[in-house]
Amino acid sequence: MQLSVDATYLTQTLIDLVQIDSRNPSLTPDSPGEVTVAAYTAQRLRDLGLEVFAYDVAPNRPNVVGILRGSGGGKSLLLNAHMDTVGTEGMAAPFSAEIRDGKLYGRGSQDMKGSLAAMLAAAKAIVDRGIALSGDLLITAVADEEYISIGTDDLVKRFSADAAIVTEPTDMRLCRAHRGFIWYTVTSVGRAAHGSRYDEGVDAIMRMGRFLHELDKLEQELRRRPPHPLVGTPSLHAAMIAGGTEISVYAAQCTLQVERRTNPGETVAQATAELETLCQRVNATDTTNQLAVTVDFSRPAFEIAANRPIVQVVEQAMSKRLGQVEPHVGATFWTDAAILAAAGIDTVLLGPVGAGLHSAEEWVDLQSVSDLAAVLAETARTFCA
Fold this sequence. Notes:
Layout (H helix, E strand, L loop, with lengths): L6 H13 L15 H13 L3 E8 L2 E8 L8 E6 L16 E2 L2 E3 L3 H21 L7 E6 L7 H9 L4 E4 L8 E4 L1 E10 L14 H20 L11 E9 L9 E10 L5 H16 L7 E9 L2 E2 L5 H14 L6 E3 L5 H6 L3 E4 L4 E2 L7 E3 H18 L2
Parallel strand pairs: 3-6, 3-7, 7-15, 8-14
Antiparallel strand pairs: 1-2, 2-6, 4-5, 5-17, 8-13, 9-11, 9-12, 10-11, 16-17
């Protein structure tokens, strides 16, 4: 028998969450961050009778963890959603939580307060039915996923589980892989001189142009590589460039920010070597070229095999709720699943249907949020038995 999801509770919880401004202050200065939404989430978890841990991972940047304790001997399951959202530029009513035609609108509705509401409703379904789990069920609401994921980075140092479901939006398709990313700074060093003194000046921007020409060829070559079956080919793009001081002066320095998206199996060392080869190639053509590349930040790609127990249990729960389950997918974006997997936790992704992530009109399909809650509850009942 399927577990019953309290539709009224689920919808009201989602309305409440979307109406709370939780924009990430690292992305939008002077934004409130997760403090208020964390307090709300913690109280909801306490109301359900869970053991609650609420703590700061940085000043005023809280995580919230609720644990429904099992009787012992069973496998533990961790459900994960982030509480922060991106900015609201261009949105007429970002926190309205208006419902139209079965869709709830507002910043964070799909990314990912619909998922957080579904996690809470899943826990409520288990509590209301009086199901005694053997393993622990952890409901984790984390900070800062939209920036550098300090929340889940800290979470895995304090809590663990046998498996996890990251409830990022997947349009209710089971996701088993996603790409990673690396942020680079490429520096070109020239020599400042008056614009009339061509025999003294070395134009760092012009030298960077030579690198960009090589970078474009590498980008095209990446697209021709054999694709990963779930996430496609790796990619890169030139994101930002800066250099020079004034129009009549040769630029002494130019910096270029490059983002490289990596596939499962690729390493930072491999991707960096490719850019270093480009620098060496350009430097070899002219003794005035001085190009170098540094790694600023990176996150690994993620993949889990189709035969892992959590994959099979989630698929069974989806089939029970939805009928025929569509083929597994991969994501081109990065998620906290990579952090959980790196900590030794078998992880999959499953989230609701919607549209408009990071755009001027964001919405989530309410039926899919209810379906997600039911699948999460059924997965917990089976996996933690």
